[in-house]
Automatic annotation (TrEMBL):
Family under the similarity heading: Belongs to the FAD-binding monooxygenase family.
Species assigned in the record: Actinoplanes sandaracinus
A Pfam family that the UniProt record links to this protein: FMO-like
InterPro entries according to UniProt: FAD-binding_MO, FAD/NAD-bd_sf, Flavin_mOase-like
Name under which the protein is recorded: NAD(P)/FAD-dependent oxidoreductase
Coiled coil regions in record: none
Keywords: FAD, Flavoprotein, Monooxygenase, Oxidoreductase
EC number: 1.14.13.-
A GO term, aspect molecular function: oxidoreductase activity
Cofactor (UniProt): FAD
Domain of life: Bacteria
Length: 498
């Protein structure tokens, strides 16, 4: 830890990150454990996480807000697949309605966290990003809600000849406020959720937009507005109507995922049929919209009201499936020999995954290597005491799991308080238990770093569940105790900052 002059302040819980997960965690603490002291540490100058960071045209969720929103706060907007400003407004309403504004400490970047078993607390090293000042805080618990990717750097492959291109090259994670694409030829490199969002958003004013992909993705049109959810809200009111719409959409997500996993050939055919109906007659669907993998080996890309297909039908946008040889002065040269001319190139090539915000963690002086840990209930890590983390679902709405694990976290703290425990540490009963990757997901951004992430086991409680119904039982209904979760008391609590 760095030498600092400022005295240490102690809190019961430090939440890292003021995005959708951190705001949710703070609200559950405020309502379920009102006596607990906590703070949310946010490295940036604003709340909202992803929904404040990304500013590229058309940015929106790819999950419906009846399930991506919080269970405790109804989504009242007509947009079900909502754009970022609406989501950001919803998150900041949550902060205001629950009195969380004073708990957020902006410009506080967490650099390192050190656990002391003797004191039963974390000491956390923080950098003030606005002043460069270093300070220390201590806490009984850490709750990592920092997301899963680096905020300061997106992923861009090495492109030969990149410096030759005479126009701007932009990554969506760092979109310039003054970039004007009106009347320009735009090439967007990528085929994921960001690319299929950008294409129709830019196509209305650009001269032409080309989505250049190495490999196709599964793309499905979905209604931007949920008519049935609106009807339920009108009939049953905000609270009950929202709960019913949420349940409906949870079941719908589960049904689609199960169908795709159990009947991948039929799912592929159905998606192709839908795509064919959305595209012009004679369009080469198999070339541009027929991935080599099965549906839901990676996330399906949702396009609200089929806006991507509409841009293609109207001639405003096109898709090219090829490989890049080199950038040129005027665009991109492809393996086929074709040159795509461009005034602007957008590299929608993904994220750099970064677990726990890149924070260096030590336990009693020993560094914690994530790859050597096993995830406990998808909430804690083997051998690491009093640390919880928020990772949502990859096969449905992220926030569905966040709500459940926040509830579980509060129940766990309440159990410790009622029994006088200071320390909670998951420990493997069988260190030789077979393990596998933490996330069984084929997306490139996961596969690039899967070897550095925690592992999961072959049995509960060491499995990372991606099933909402299973997690309702595990995290909400089942007891918080487990033979492999060890609780201890520490007699001496008179350390610094007590």
């Amino acid at each position: 830890m760095a030498d600092v002059a400022e005295p240490v302040e102690h809190l019961d819980v430090l939440i890292i990150g003021a995005g959708i997960s951190g705001i949710g965690a703070a609200r559950y603490l405020r309502t379920e454990l009102s006596a607990k002291t906590f703070a949310i540490l946010e490295a940036r100058a604003a709340s909202g996480g992803t929904w404040d960071l990304f500013r590229y045209p058309g940015i929106r969720s790819d999950s419906d807000l009846h399930t991506f929103g919080y269970e405790f706060k109804p989504w009242r907007d007509r947009q079900s697949i909502a754009d970022a400003p609406r989501i950001l407004s919803y998150l900041r309403e949550t902060i205001s309605e629950n009195g969380l504004g004073g708990a957020i400490r902006y410009h506080h970047r967490v650099l390192a966290a050190s656990w002391s078993s003797e004191r039963a607390r974390w000491t956390v090293e923080i950098e003030r990003t606005d002043t460069g000042e270093r300070l220390l805080l201590s806490a009984g618990w850490l709750f990592s809600a920092s997301g899963y990717y680096r905020y300061d750097e997106g992923f861009t492959p090495v492109f030969s000849g990149r410096d030759r291109f005479r126009g701007p090259i932009v990554h969506p994670q760092h979109w310039p406020e003054d970039l004007d694409h009106t009347g320009k030829r735009v090439v967007i490199i990528g085929s994921g959720a960001t690319a299929v969002t950008l294409v129709p958003a830019m196509a209305d004013t650009a001269a032409h937009v080309t989505m250049l992909q190495r490999t196709p993705s599964y793309v499905m049109p979905v209604p931007r507005e949920d008519a049935l959810a609106e009807l339920l809200r009108k009939i049953f009111g905000d609270q009950r109507g929202y709960a019913l719409a949420r349940r409906k959409n949870i079941l719908k997500q589960l049904a689609v995922w199960r169908f795709c996993k159990r009947f991948p050939t039929a799912a592929r055919r159905l998606i192709r049929w839908v795509n064919t109906r959305q595209l012009p007659d004679g369009y080469p669907v198999d070339e541009h919209f027929n991935p080599p993998y099965s549906p839901w080996d990676q996330r399906l890309c949702a396009v609200p009201d089929g806006d991507l297909f509409r841009a293609i039908r109207h001639g405003q946008a096109s898709v090219v499936t090829d490989r890049i040889v080199t950038f040129t002065e005027n665009g991109v040269l492809l393996e086929s020999g074709r040159e795509l001319e461009a005034d602007i190139i957008v590299t929608a090539t993904g994220l750099n995954v970064q677990a726990f915000g890149g924070v260096t963690v030590t336990v009693d002086g020993e560094p914690v290597l994530l790859r050597d840990t096993v995830a406990y209930k998808g909430v804690m890590l083997s051998g690491v005491p009093n640390l919880a983390y928020a990772i949502g679902y990859t096969n449905s709405s992220w926030t569905l799991k966040i709500g459940l694990l926040c509830e579980h976290f509060c129940r766990l703290l309440a159990h410790m308080d009622s029994h006088g425990y200071d320390v909670c540490r998951p420990e493997l009963a069988d260190p030789a238990m077979p393990t596998r990757p933490f996330l069984d997901f084929a997306a490139g951004y996961i596969q690039r770093v899967v070897g550095d992430l925690p592992r999961q086991g072959d049995r509960m409680p060491w499995l990372t569940s991606m099933s909402y119904s299973s997690d309702v039982k595990l995290l909400r209904s089942d007891d918080v105790t487990d033979p492999e979760l060890h609780f201890t008391r520490v007699a001496d609590r008179s350390g610094v900052g007590a």
